[in-house]
Specification:
The chain is of the alpha/beta class and 485 residues long. It has 2 domains: 377 residues, Alkaline Phosphatase, subunit A, CATH 3.40.720; 52 residues, no CATH class. 34% of the residues lie in helices and 12% in strands. The strands form 2 sheets. Strands 1, 5, 6, 7, 8, 9, 10, 11 and 12 form a 9-stranded mixed sheet that branches. Helix 1 packs parallel to helix 9, helix 4 packs across helix 12 and helix 8 packs across helix 9. The protein is globular and about 75 Å long.
Length: 485
């Protein structure tokens, strides 16, 4: 027997329509929220505020900033920090093969690690080496994403949970920037730090989380949104203007449309967010205007990375006018996924990887010099992050995806001139190799590395587990490379 046909009465249709509208509203509002990448008002309900009176230049004594420099693609840190003592270098040269940097070219670092080994920097980084010698740079050995501390035996037996999708660019970038590899992504650790410290800021007009490299996972928070700016200027609406010019008339008409009363929820939300984006861009453009005071520090540098750090320096220079005592910045340099052509045959200290390292060295040095001119070097800490390290052995003329990597921390508050953490045993298939090619199992977790930075930034010990839920699983919530204050 056939079932009776359904009869849809108008009330049922209205009910279904309302449900669909609710689902659509959720999705659309989620998309509208992405517009805040360009406006990023910390409190969108707040009235527009004028610039806070202040003097450009030296920041307030209680100001602090974190600058995340992401090396996108996976830096081959095996050639960033290289053993130089005779026995360990011989092991390095054997394992690296065609990728080994000549021992005589390396830039020796003073001192030894606790196990007696000596290390040097890649020859393309003389500026960074000088900063290390001056105590302004610390190096972190063998850092990576971990769910729990993991030994080779545990890795082989899969007796502890491991980060999912190890060796995958997208997944490991998310895990590095979220510091919660065993859960689905909801926020980045930089965003969570911003959420906890934003109350220290006195102006909600411009977000404390500023990216000069586009949208990222690191700065995603619950209440603080990313604010995206360009490398040379603050973004503005194309074709906008003032007065009676064509662009001025066009801008006035757009303003009338955006401020008009509207009964439609989505049009009202879109108009409000769009107007905030335009207003905030104009506001910041007036604060960051004129000739940069850091031209001499960045002279002869025209790479994208140097331009990103130059803009960050300019934004730090006006932090008093912005009413910000805490800021979190994000910069990015790509090109590190060097499966081939990593270095030049016959000149192994040069090539694509050396060019990238030299850019990092020169740009960081210029950034630090710029900060020194406004006495901000002790209040700004720059640190590197990357997808993962790369295989110790070579695939011929490049390296492949691996796990643990070495990192750089720069600033006047850094206890520099030392290598922190534990450098791996450079034995292929040895105690630190997760495979057969030198995939170093991290001996320091991203959680420990990041928590040390967050604690210096002002996150209390009781709040650290809010930012880093897995931190209690690891032995060193403070690695000691930051001075306490």
């Amino acid at each position: 027997m056939n079932a009776s046909p359904r009869h849809y009465d108008p009330s049922r249709r209205r009910f279904l329509g309302t449900c669909c509208a609710a689902v659509t509203a959720t999705g659309l509002l989620s998309q509208l929220a992405q517009l805040r990448l360009m406006s990023a008002v910390a409190d969108t309900g707040s009235p527009l505020q004028p610039a806070i009176p202040g003097t450009a230049g030296a920041p307030q004594s209680d100001y602090k900033a974190l600058v995340c420099l992401f090396l996108a693609g996976g830096n081959d840190a095996n050639n960033l920090v290289v053993p130089i003592d005779a026995s360990t270098y011989a092991q390095y040269a054997t394992g690296r093969g065609a990728l080994a940097i000549p021992q005589a070219d390396l830039l020796p670092l003073a001192g030894t690690t606790p196990d007696g080994r000596q290390f040097g920097l890649h020859p393309a980084m003389p500026e960074l080496k000088a900063m290390y010698d001056a105590g302004q740079v610390a190096l972190l050995g063998n850092v990576g994403t971990l769910v729990y501390p993991t030994t080779k035996a545990q890795y082989t037996a899969r007796s502890v949970p491991l980060p999912p999708a190890l060796f995958s660019h997208n997944d490991q970038q998310i895990d590095w920037q979220s510091s919660v590899p065993d859960k689905g992504f909801t926020s980045g650790w930089g965003g969570r730090v911003a959420d906890l410290t934003n109350a220290l800021n006195t102006n909600n007009r411009v977000s404390m989380a500023i990216t000069v490299a586009g949208q990222n996972f690191f700065q995603v928070g619950r209440s603080v949104s990313q604010y995206a700016v360009g490398t040379n200027s603050v973004p503005s609406l194309t074709g906008s203007g003032t007065g009676t010019s064509v662009n001025g008339v066009r801008t006035a008409a757009l303003t009338d449309l955006l401020t008009a009363q509207n009964k439609n929820l989505f049009e009202t939300a879109f108009a409000g967010l769009t107007k905030e984006a335009i207003d905030d861009s104009a506001y910041l453009a007036t604060v960051v205007s004129g000739t940069s005071p850091f031209q001499s520090a960045f002279a002869n540098l025209n790479t994208n990375l140097s331009q990103q750090l130059h803009m960050i320096a300019r934004l730090i220079n006006v932090q008093q006018q912005l009413g910000l005592k805490r800021q979190v910045f994000f910069a990015r340099i790509g090109g590190w996924d060097l499966h081939d052509n990593q270095l030049n045959v016959g000149q192994r200290s040069s090539g694509a990887h050396a060019t990238l390292l030299n850019d990092v060295s020169r740009s960081i040095n210029a950034f630090y010099a710029a900060l020194r001119t406004i006495s901000a070097e002790n209040q700004v800490t720059t640190f590197t992050a990357s997808d993962f390290g790369r295989t110790f052995d070579t695939n011929g003329d490049g390296s492949d995806h691996a796990w643990g990597s070495h990192h750089i921390v720069v600033g006047g508050a850094v206890r520099g001139g030392s290598i922190y953490g534990t450098m791996p045993d450079f034995t292929i298939r040895g105690p630190d190799d997760a495979g057969s090619r030198g995939l170093w199992i991290p001996t320091t977790s991203v959680d420990e590395y990041s928590a040390t930075l967050a604690r210096w930034f002002g996150v209390s010990a009781t709040d650290l587990p809010v930012v880093f839920p897995n931190l209690g699983r690891f032995a060193k919530p403070d690695l000691g490379f930051m001075a306490t204050s």
